[in-house]
Amino acid sequence: MAAVLRRGFRLVSFGSSQLLCGGCKHGRTSSLSICSTSSRNSSSSSSSSSSHVKVDLDGSTGIAVVKFQSSPVNSMSLDFLTELCISLEKLELDRSCRGVILTSALPKIFSAGLDITEMYGKNPEHYAEFWKSVQEIWLKVYGYSKIAIAAINGSSPAGGCLVSMACDYRIMADDPRYRIGLNEAQLGIVAPFWFKDTMVNTVGFRTTELSLQFGLMYSPSDALKIGLVDQVVPEENVLSTATETITKWLAIPDHAREISKSMMRKPMVDRLLASRESDIKNFVNFITKDSIQKSLGFYMNSLKQRKA
Ligand SMILES: CCCCCCCCCCCCC/C=C/C(=O)SCCNC(=O)CCNC(=O)[C@H](O)C(C)(C)COP(=O)(O)OP(=O)(O)OC[C@H]1O[C@@H](n2cnc3c(N)ncnc32)[C@H](O)[C@@H]1OP(=O)(O)O
C-alpha cells in the first residue's frame, strides 16, 4: 500500500492564466470497473464502481454523481481516500465531465469522517501515509478545476465536514437528527491549520473559533444559519436540488469560473503544498503521543458502548 498517492498539484496553462489542476498519482491498479452506456461520443454515459466509491457520469449533461458506499458509515480509510481521489482525478481528466456531485449511497450518513482505526495503534509510517492521503483528498477537492457540489444526505462530522466544505456548494438533508461540523476537539484531537482555514473561509473567523474549541456539531438548520451549508431541503430532494444547482453553475463559461475559483483558492492550496512534509511530521508527532492514543481509544470505545 506504500506510495499510493504521490503527487502534488501542477499548474496547467489556460489561455493566459495558470489554473490549479490536481492529479492523484497512484502506484497500484485501481479496482474500478467501468461500463459505458454508449460508444465513444460526446454524450456517452458511464458507470464505474469500486468497493468504496460509485461513479455515474451522464455524458449528455456533463454531471457525474460520486457516491460513497463504504459500509457501515463511510469512514475515510486509506483505501477509501485513495479510491475517491482516483475517481475524482479520472473525472477531472474526462472532457465529457464538467461537474461532480458528492453524496452517499448509505442511509443517514454522508461520511463519519476520517477512519479512526487508521490513526490508532499503528506505526508512524502508516500514520504518515494515511495523513498524506488526507492531504491529497483535500488538495484534490479544494483545488478541483470542475464544479463540486456536496449533496449531504446524512451526518457529516470532521473529515466528512472538511470534504463538504472543500466543495463549491453544500446542500443538506433537512433531518434534525443529522449533524455536521468539525468535532475534533471532542475526540481530544486538534484540527490542523488547513481544516481550520477551510472553515474560516466558509463561515468566518468567530464562528470557526467557537466551533473548533467546542468541537461543535450543527443540525442542518443551524448549519444553514451560520453558512456551513448553503441550502437545506427535504432528504428526498437533496440529489435533484444538487442537479438543479450544478446546472446553474454549468451556465457559466468554464474558463471564467475556473479562473475565479483558482484565484480564491490557490493561496490556501499553495500554503499546504509548501508545508506538506512538516504537516505530516506534526500529525505523526501528535497522533503517536500516548495521551492522544488514549483519547482516541477512549472515543472508539464510547462509540461502541453507545450501541450496546
Ligand atoms: C501546534 C498545533 C498542533 C496541531 C497538530 C495537528 C495534527 C493533526 C491532528 C489530528 C487531526 C485529525 C483530524 C480528524 C478528523 C476526523 O475525521 S476524526 C473522525 C471523527 N468522526 C467522528 O467523530 C464520528 C464518529 N461516529 C459517529 O458519530 C457515528 O458513528 C455516526 C457517524 C453518527 C453514525 O452513527 P450510527 O449510524 O449510530 O453508527 P455507529 O453504530 O455509531 O457506528 C457504526 C460502526 O462504525 C464505527 N465508526 C463510526 N465512526 C467511525 C470512524 N470515524 N472511524 C472508524 N469507525 C467508525 C463505529 O465504531 C461502529 O463500529 P462497530 O461497533 O464495530 O460496528
UniProtKB/TrEMBL annotation:
Major site of localization recorded for this protein: mitochondrion
Record's keyword terms, sorted: Acetylation, Fatty acid metabolism, Isomerase, Lipid metabolism, Mitochondrion, Transit peptide
GO-annotated biological processes: fatty acid beta-oxidation
Gene Ontology molecular functions: delta(3)-delta(2)-enoyl-CoA isomerase activity
CDD domains: crotonase-like
EC number(s) given by UniProt: 5.3.3.8
SUPFAM superfamilies reported in the protein's UniProt record: ClpP/crotonase
SUBUNIT field: Homotrimer.
Job description of the protein: Key enzyme of fatty acid beta-oxidation. Able to isomerize both 3-cis (3Z) and 3-trans (3E) double bonds into the 2-trans (2E) form in a range of enoyl-CoA species, with a preference for (3Z)-enoyl-CoAs over (3E)-enoyl-CoAs. The catalytic efficiency of this enzyme is not affected by the fatty acyl chain length.
Family, per entry: Belongs to the enoyl-CoA hydratase/isomerase family.
Protein name: Enoyl-CoA delta isomerase 1, mitochondrial
Taxonomic source organism: Silurus meridionalis
Source species taxonomy: Eukaryota, Metazoa, Chordata, Craniata, Vertebrata
